[in-house]
Design goal:
CATH topology of the largest domain: BirA Bifunctional Protein, domain 2
Structural class: alpha+beta
Number of domains: 2
Shape: elongated
CATH architecture of the largest domain: 2-Layer Sandwich
Strand content: 15-25%
Radius of gyration: 27 Å
CATH superfamily of the largest domain: Bira Bifunctional Protein, Domain 2
Length: about 425
């Protein structure tokens, strides 16, 4: 949610942010008018209420005809105050809606453009030379690790069973993520996967991404697409001690409808309706947010190094940011079967945008209540298995297990079933 002080003092900053995103400036204009209307309604109400209070004192002292006239005015004024109060409520609702429609202000340095206009910050690792490349699904079937056919039979398209070594790999990956999170000072969390509408709205997932979300109408609850939602709402309506940032790592299953992705990545487990993830989340003071963002990115790169995956880091263009993010770094791993890099992790600096919606505050050095900043980043998720299988495949269909995962998998090499 946009800070109304910024709107009033520098609306052109918001308009420039919208242009950088490739979005319409009209949302800012609508917000400006809604703010003006709400302030005017409040002023009109306060003027009438002040008159009502003054009149009440005069009535108590008046007598005869004067008192009758004052009582008549009092009755008339009561109707006007009630109407003014209703106008305040209506204008406040319109203001909130207008605020929710304006995305976060893009951070300085983010390039304009869309999905393909990112900036490559660095490439790390050596792309493997594989003579005969098998994709992750072929490898998964050879290893008895992925069963898409039965997933579709049981639940429909874009569902799978991770079986045997596939299940062990995922558990190992998430365990490694939690281990590294704890080593870096994050508090591990098992988070709810069903959340209330205010939690989903507070994190910005009921705007442009609403079609991606599963909704249980009977219970008025949403299935999360990331534990970011539950972690962000964990401290809603609280005042925190942010002497040091509060850092969490949430392990959860995640659910996405993948609306609008018909025909995209239909093979295998790249784009599915259900997956597991370890998500980092931080609450900090706004002036600490940029450093905290880089800290999250460093942890994600640490995971890539431990898994031995070739990857690149990109600075996402403004038009590919979510509504809550002011800046986003993605890590894309090399997918040999596609001969290109594909996203594995994202880390976003959401500044005060989410915390303002969720009313998460802290006290500054002078004891004043201030809005906190929030950040999130992926540490491990099911899609990692695609890169692990494809980059570590051998000519016979076996797959070398990354050394960091071997304590949980129990093997150095996964062999094709029956070999």
């Amino acid at each position: 949610m946009i800070d109304l002080r910024i709107l009033r003092e520098n609306p052109d900053l918001l308009r420039a942010s919208q242009r950088t995103r490739g979005a319409s400036e009209s949302a800012v204009d609508t917000l400006v008018k809604a703010d003006e209307d709400n302030r005017a309604a409040l002023h009109a109400y306060e003027v009438l209420r002040a008159e009502q209070k003054t009149l009440g004192k005069q009535v108590a002292k008046a007598k005869g005809e004067e008192k009758a006239e004052l009582l008549a005015r009092t009755k008339e004024l009561a109707v006007q105050v009630k109407a003014a109060d209703a106008q305040v409520t209506e204008s406040a609702e319109a203001l909130k809606k207008a605020q929710l429609d304006v995305p976060n202000i893009v951070d300085e340095g983010v390039v304009p453009g869309g999905e393909d206009d990112f900036v490559v910050l660095r490439e790390v690792g050596e792309i493997p030379a594989i003579e005969k490349v098998r994709d992750h699904l072929e490898l998964g079937e050879l290893l008895g690790a992925i069963d898409m056919e039965r997933g579709a039979k049981v639940s429909g398209s874009r569902f799978s069973f991770l079986t045997g070594p596939g299940a062990l790999l995922q558990i190992a990956l998430l365990q490694l993520g939690i281990q590294r999170a704890v080593a870096n000072g994050l508090t591990p969390m098992i988070t709810p996967v069903l959340v209330r509408p205010e939690s989903m709205e507070g994190t910005g997932f009921l705007g442009a991404h609403a079609e991606e979300v599963y909704y249980l109408e009977r219970d008025d609850l949403y299935l999360v697409g990331t534990s970011e939602v539950a972690l962000a709402a964990f401290h809603s309506d609280e005042i925190l001690d942010l002497t040091e940032p509060k850092r969490y790592a949430g392990w959860s299953s995640c659910f996405r409808r993948e609306a609008g992705s018909h025909g995209k990545d239909t093979r295998g487990i790249i784009r599915v309706h259900q997956f597991d993830k370890v998500e980092m989340f931080s609450f900090c003071k706004p002036e600490q947010a940029r450093d905290e963002h880089l800290r999250m990115l460093a942890m994600e790169e640490e995971m890539m190094g431990l898994l031995g995956l070739p990857y690149r880091v990109i600075d996402t263009a403004a038009g590919d940011l979510g509504s809550s993010a002011a800046r986003k770094f993605d890590i894309e791993a090399w997918f040999p079967s596609q001969e290109r890099y594909r996203e594995l992790t994202s880390s976003s600096n959401c500044t005060t945008f989410q915390a303002r919606r969720l009313n998460v505050r802290y006290r500054d050095e002078e004891g004043r209540s201030q809005i906190a900043a929030t950040l999130n980043g992926t540490l491990a998720t099911t899609r990692f298995l695609v890169a692990i299988l494809e980059n570590n495949q051998q000519a016979d269909g076996s797959v070398i297990v990354p050394e960091a995962l071997r304590p949980w998998v129990g093997k150095d090499v996964l062999e094709p079933v029956g070999s």
